[in-house]
Amino acid sequence: MGMVRDGFEIVEAFIPSELVNTALLELENSEELYSMCGVRNAEAKFKFVGRICTSKFVQGKLKQYLPGKAQLVRAIVFDKTLESNWLVTWHQDKTVALSEKMEMPGWGPWSVKDGVVHVQPPLQVLENMLTFRIHLDPAKKNNGCLKVVPESHKIGVIEQNQIASIVESSEIRFCEIGAGGAVLMRPHILHSSSKSKSSGHRRVLHLEYSNYQLESGLKWAASITKRKVPIS
């Protein structure tokens, strides 16, 4: 089992409790408003994101799974509670965030979310990406932990009308994990989550990285986001 075969990996105690507590304190004192889409451009809004991104824990896994120079593509903070609750149906993460729109064969459709350009890239790009879901609270079945279909990333980009039949005929894995743990996954693995039935928080830092070399002049959105806090 693991990233190479299954397309995901669960790592308990991925970051130390001190860093978890630092992140929670900053979130609790923040005036950033959450939405169903979480807080996008989190690398520009929270200092703890920079600490985690540059930590030996993240950098070590990047060297293991993304050879070469891996760069941050997107950072989002999610906080699922009874008051801010949502169901995520089975899907693949198939878009990336870029500095600008540039017509390229195989890239599209294009969209803009929170002022940032997003696009569906070719499969080769997705295969050169790694997502970290770093949990700041325990994630269990009762508070909407991530569910995945192991090895579904090997299918490639899946048509929407094929997803239900694939899920019905596959093993489903619940990614239950403690605070400080991380789920690492390929973005195009089939995944979903249920609504929370718990009174507490389920806060997650979602980081996407890629070592894919973009066209000259094009950058990942996270590298050009106007930062409110230093990445240190």
Structure description:
Helices cover 20% and strands 25% of the residues. With 232 residues, it is an alpha+beta fold. Strands 1-10-7-12-2 form a 5-stranded antiparallel sheet. Strands 3-11-8-9 form a 4-stranded antiparallel sheet.
Keywords:
single chain; about 230 residues; alpha+beta; 5-stranded antiparallel sheet; 4-stranded antiparallel sheet
Major β-sheet profile:
5 strands, antiparallel
Count of discrete alpha- or pi-helical segments spanning 4 or more residues = 6
What order do the helices and strands follow?
HEHHHEEEEEHEEHEEEE
Low-confidence stretches: none
Secondary structural class? alpha+beta
Strands ordered across the widest β-sheet: 1-10-7-12-2
What share of residues is helical? 10-25%
What form results from the Cα inertia axes?
A: globular
How large is the radius of gyration? Answer: 17 Å
Compose a concise summary of this entry:
The protein is of the alpha+beta class. It has helices spanning 3-6, 17-28, 47-53, 56-65, 123-126, 160-168; strands spanning 8-11, 71-80, 88-91, 96-98, 110-113, 116-119, 129-135, 146-148, 173-174, 182-185, 191-193, 202-210. Strand 5 (110-113) and strand 6 (116-119) form a beta hairpin.
Topology:
Layout: H1 3-6, E1 8-11, H2 17-28, H3 47-53, H4 56-65, E2 71-80, E3 88-91, E4 96-98, E5 110-113, E6 116-119, H5 123-126, E7 129-135, E8 146-148, H6 160-168, E9 173-174, E10 182-185, E11 191-193, E12 202-210
Antiparallel strand pairs: 1-10, 2-12, 3-11, 4-6, 5-6, 7-10, 7-12, 8-9, 8-11
